[in-house]
Amino acid sequence: MTSLSFPLAGEPEAEAAEAGRRLFAGPVSFLKGVVSMEGLPPGDRVEVCFAGRSNVGKSSLINALTGRKGLARASNTPGRTREVNFFALGETHYLVDLPGYGFANAPVRTVERWQKLMKSYLAGRPNLRRAFLLIDARHGVKPVDEEIMDLLDRSAVTFQLVLTKTDKIKAGGRKRVLDQVRERLARHAAAYPEILMTSSQTGEGMATLRAIIAGIDSQA
């Protein structure tokens, strides 16, 4: 048993892994993209969202997680996701892809509108059970990430930090980024006490993330 603050999420138990596999092996489909809070679907399912800086790899992670290569559009152009995109996961869950924050290749007013919608969603969606905050493993936590962490703290929304693109760093780089993110997470009351390392290219962490999502209870 480790006493390390914010340990890495371990491999799921066989039962949890199978629950995650079954959930994601079922139907997954794009439901809708919304541009205002009024357009959100009914809050009648377990909902988890993916947030992160522009070009952190949210769409690629959703595609890898669901095993559907073209489900979420991936792009090398920061700011491609311009709406709050809802994906129906079976009859029980919504996966939500939020617009990237930070730099975006779009007019300032458009970016401001995306950011306002994202913040309104994070602060005001009652059935949102967990936010997965994606951080590029090559760069660690940036000040703009901490702004979102502060918002999640104020909104009492549990968030779990997910390091992306881990195939692009070596073992020494992993230790450095883990030290940095653990120090930052210790400042935030809403931070879930495990970190997940993922790669959309190699599949690292996907079974664990599926099991985590499948295990989030509707009343959590």
Secondary structure: elements and pairs:
Layout: H1 14-25, E1 28-34, E2 46-52, H2 58-66, E3 84-89, E4 93-97, H3 108-124, E5 128-136, H4 143-155, E6 159-164, H5 171-185, E7 196-197, H6 206-215
Parallel strand pairs: 2-4, 2-5, 5-6, 6-7
Antiparallel strand pairs: 1-3, 3-4
Poorly predicted ranges (pLDDT <50, ≥5 residues)? 75-80
The succession of helices and strands, N to C, reads HEEHEEHEHEHEH
CATH class, anyone?
A: Alpha Beta
Number of helices: 6
CATH topology: Rossmann fold
Summarize the structure.
The chain is an alpha/beta fold. It has 6 helices and 7 strands, in the order H-E-E-H-E-E-H-E-H-E-H-E-H.
Structure description:
This protein is α/β, with parallel strands linked by helices and 220 residues long. The protein has one domain: 3-Layer(aba) Sandwich (Rossmann fold). It is built from six helices and seven strands. It has helices at residues 14-25, 58-66, 108-124, 143-155, 171-185, 206-215; strands spanning 28-34, 46-52, 84-89, 93-97, 128-136, 159-164, 196-197. It has a seven-stranded mixed β-sheet, with helices on both faces. Helix 4 links the parallel strand 5 (128-136) and strand 6. The two termini are 24 Å apart. The model is unreliable at 75-80 (pLDDT under 50). Belongs to the TRAFAC class TrmE-Era-EngA-EngB-Septin-like GTPase superfamily. EngB GTPase family. Pfam families: MMR_HSR1 (PF01926).
